[in-house]
From TrEMBL:
Protein name (Swiss-Prot/TrEMBL): superoxide dismutase
Residue ranges constituting the Manganese/iron superoxide dismutase N-terminal domain according to the UniProt record: 87-167
PANTHER family attached to this UniProt entry: SUPEROXIDE DISMUTASE 2, SUPEROXIDE DISMUTASE [MN], MITOCHONDRIAL
InterPro entries reported for this sequence: Fe/Mn_Superoxide_Dismutase, Mn/Fe_SOD, Mn/Fe_SOD_BS, Mn/Fe_SOD_C, Mn/Fe_SOD_N, Mn/Fe_SOD_N_sf, SOD_C_sf
Record-annotated Manganese/iron superoxide dismutase C-terminal domain positions: 174-276
Record's keyword annotation contains Translocase: no
EC number: 1.15.1.1
Homology family: Belongs to the iron/manganese superoxide dismutase family.
Amino acid sequence: MDSHEQALRKWKDELARLWKEQESEFVRSIGEEQTQPFTKSLSQLEYALEHDPTQANEHAQHAYDSWVVMADLRGKGKNNSVPIGGHRLPPMPYSYNALEPYIDEKTMRLHHLKHHQTYVNDLNKAEKEMEKARRTGNYDLIKHWEREAAFNGAGHYLHTLFWHVMSPNGGGEPQGALKARITEDFGSFQKMKAHFSNAAEKVEGGGWAMLIYAPRSHRLEILQAEKHQNLSQQDQVPLLVLDVWEHAYYLKYQNERKAYIEAWWNVVNWKEAENRYRQASQLKWVPY
């Protein structure tokens, strides 16, 4: 069994675990019939891994795609909001070793299952504590829990986006409207890339670099964020984000953040960024 097959088995086990945890809620919110494409794809993936590993990648993609469809249907239900304290760790859109050699499997696994899960857990705790404060009228610790919600909420949302703006089939340059907008706002793709890379390299401590669309100024900008939420701007839509906390790269690159950033461009999922720009650019506030 090669390393790719091992990673795919682990990814399948993680997806199966998430399904076991959320099956009853999916069935209740969208109906059992709507879950059948996913359960069929998951069964086919399990069979392929045991009997015909050459077909496993195809079935893994089908399983992930059908999971996304289920989640979208659930989100369009009668109440599409996440319950207070009900945030969940999203499944990875690819196996943990899929971004090698640029980002290693061990880093991806720890980053997702440990770091991201912690942000989810602590966000849920903060939301429940603030709900408790509203219920009891005791706001003595509201400053603390608001800070916890800001840090962990931003961490959860940014990581959820981070996984999707990377792909084993990534790299290259954007196309279409996003490329045209980048050229208009930065002069060229290479100038945007240089600006983004330097902003990422120079984030003080842990944090992020972000290519964003600004509905107020009607253009693209590059921002830093320290931690997840500090020293940045509000009322923006992130299109492309890069995590430069040490836990995102230290196992492979040690303190060579610049080398990590250069490698990361090889896995950028421009299709996802283009899709986000297509939707975000519909937002246009009165410019000031």
